[in-house]
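Revision sheet: structure tokens.
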Amino acid sequence: MEGYYVTKVGQNEATIKKYIQEQEKHDSALDKLSVRE
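Predicted:
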């Protein structure tokens, strides 16, 4: 998947930034859940 995003950066930079932000939100949510356990 990484290579796909790299090749699309010029065309879809905004989409990729949004994707990364969503991934970060998801990761931080998982971190909060795992801390509680």
